[in-house]
Amino acid sequence: MLDPKTHKDWEIAQDAEKAMRPIMDIGRSAGLLDNELLPQGHYLARVDYARVLQRLGDKPNGKYIDVTAVTPTPLGEGKSTTTIGLVQGLGRLGKTVSAAMRQPSGGPTMNIKGSAAGGGLSQIIPRTEFSLGLTGDINAVANAHNLAMVALNARMQHEFNYDDAKLAAMNIRRLNIDPTKVQIGWVLDFCAQSLRHIITGLGGKFDGLTMESHVDITVASEVMAILAVAKDLADLRQRMGRVVVAYDKYNKPVTTADLEVDGAMCAWMVQAINPTMMQTLEGQPVFIHAGPFANIAIGQSSVIADRLGLKLCDYHVTESGFASDIGYEKFWNLKCRASGLVPDASVIVTTVRAMKAHGGAPRAIPGKPLPAEYTDSHPAWVEKGCANLLHHINIVRRSGVSPVVCINAFYTDHDDEIAVIRRMAEEAGARVAVSRHWELGGEGATELAQAVMEAAEEANSFKYLYDLDLPLRQRVERIATEIYGADGVDFTPEANKKAAAIEADPERSVLGTCMVKTHLSLSDNPRAMGVPTRWRLKVRDILTFMGAGYVVPVAGDIKLMPGTGSQPAFSRIDVDTKTGKVTGL
Predict the structure, then answer these.
(1) Confidence of residue 11 (pLDDT cuts 50, 70, 90)
(2) Percent share of the chain, pLDDT over 90
(3) For this structure, is 81 an active site residue?
(4) Residues 517-558: tens digit of each pLDDT
(5) C-alpha R_g of the chain
(6) Do 356 and 443 sit in the same domain of this protein?
(7) Which of 462, 482, 489, 564 could form a disulfide with 191 if both were Cys (CB 3.0 to 4.6 A apart)?
């Protein structure tokens, strides 16, 4: 393997890909039969989940491990890299192990953050295919979602242009859709801030109704959420018909089933419901399914991928987006409720860099050189910043699950800084492991793997944060005060009106709660570092995702379409025309 200190991640991946094992070999080593794999070339395969789960239905599940993190810097703290490193570390200890990870969005891949394939010697390969569309799941989600918008816009145009007799002759039922109450927009899998607020239908009578609309990033689509929580194809098909696209002039919901588009939407998803299998640099299987962005979406790897891994392996590691206040909270109260699965342990990824940031170090800005304070020794900043880590330990403990703190060590870290984090986490009663998987691969993650194995043997007292019969506004209050540390919640008049309507509706009142909030702070202010105090969560809107099975309170100024930065990653990506290899990814 190339040295990660002197080579870029994409260079390490391309070098390792020369010795990649064929995907059929990876499948066999994981206990899959050849007829359960749907090859997509030599090194990728979809897994026929239904066939596998039918064969292994009576087999006991392996240990279920979730990976979450502290509040990250804008640079990220290596949660995906740690997920892969833990899998490699467990493999070094002789365990059969798999992971479920989310497919990267084209938005961050082509923006500032880059791919989510891991880094150093803890990556999944082939990296280019993983980062650039993989086997088409996100494209399928976009097509299914946008087809609903095509159906909605066409129906509104026809209802506006024709009387009842003409509609009846065309076998079209009038739905009386209110164009001011359309609930969804279009989707695109890039960061395109200029599409956040648009006008559609400019032109003549047959160019559609002129109306306000918007474009969200694809992975924030309710269709992606449905893919994440669906148990099987039948469940996905049923959920697809419950998506609310608009309200009529009498304030009744108009669904994809009303538009008779739900079956065609599901048709786009028939292949996408089968997870894609890849491999780590050390040959363990990784199931890629569903999408990222737990700040604006559910942000979880799929229930189906987890069910597969738990039947096949001694240990299955799943990934939740961003920090425990949003990613783990949604894993705990939404995904586990949908799947019926209970985690045996949770890994909280932290770094010296993040603790310095929360302790007062200068802000790290993506695309610019890292301030020298992050490579010099500053244990006082680390100690002050550990308040954020302790808050996340308490969040995981609130769920009744054993936390394991992983200090994701960078080679520029100093021993006295690492010692501060270890001391403070251990004083809080958490297991702690230093992991050098980025630098050393599985060999550098055995301490972490051992700590996870020990934690997974502990009996836990897993319990949801709220019951579904708790009124929505009280639920949001509980999440804000007990998870984020807010003093309370303030709803805008519009959000308050929507919350009251949801609480009065027997069907919507029992849906789960999927918060939309910045990932850069425990609060709704992305610049409030550490553990903010004396603040109140501001909820400005509430969306309804009937198909996914939850409502979506939107806090702060966060957008469902991120923006592209001034120094995006795409400016460094190119193709070697002699080999066809993508460089700079």
Answers:
(1) very high
(2) 83
(3) yes
(4) 999 999 999 999 999 999 999 999 999 999 999 999 999 988
(5) 24
(6) yes
(7) 564
Among 456, 484, 510, the domain-final residue is 456
pLDDT band at 457 (very low <50, low <70, confident <90, very high): very high
In a shared domain, residues 169 and 225: yes
Average pLDDT along the chain: 94
Catalytic residue among 410, 491, 535, 545: 410
Question: How many domains, in total, are found in the chain?
Answer: 3
- The span from the CA of 268 to the CA of 142, in Å, is 9
Residue 373 lies in a domain: yes
102 noted as active-site residue: yes
Does 343 have pLDDT greater than 90? yes
Separation CA 111–CA 563 (nearest Å) = 8
Shared domain for 238 and 295, answered yes or no, is no
Catalytic residue among 294, 297, 323, 338: 294
CATH of the domain at 129: 3.40.50.300
Residue 570 has pLDDT above 90, yes or no: no
Identify the domain containing residue 241 by its residue range. 137-265
Residue 581 lies in a domain: no
Task: Kindly report the number of other CB atoms within 10 A of residue 458's CB atom.
Answer: 11
**Catalytic annotation present for 190:** no
Examine the pLDDT at 234 and tell me if it is beyond 80: yes
Catalytic, 423? Answer no
Active-site residue (options: 46, 63, 113, 239): 113
Same domain, 346 and 393: yes
Active site residue: 190, 322, 535, 545, which one?
322
Catalytic residue among 63, 79, 239, 330, which? 79
In sequence order, the 6+-apart residues with CB closer than 8 A to the CB of 224 are 138, 141, 218, 290, 291, 297, 298
**What is the chain's percent helix, strand, coil content, to nearest 5?**
40, 20, 40
Catalytic residue among 10, 186, 438, 545: 438
Question: How are beta strands 186-188 and 276-280 bridged, if at all?
Answer: unpaired
| 415/276 same-domain check | yes
Residues 49 and 178 in one domain: no
Q: Is 160 a catalytic residue?
A: no
Active site residue 95: no
Residue 185 counted as domain residue: yes
The contacts of residue 151 (CB under 8 Å, 6+ apart) are 256, 259, 260, 261
Q: What is the pTM of this model?
A: 0.94
Which pLDDT tens digit goes with each residue over 458-512?
Answer: 989 999 999 999 999 999 999 999 999 999 999 999 999 999 999 999 999 999 9
Q: What span, in angstroms and rounded, lies between the C-alpha atoms of 486 and 273?
A: 38
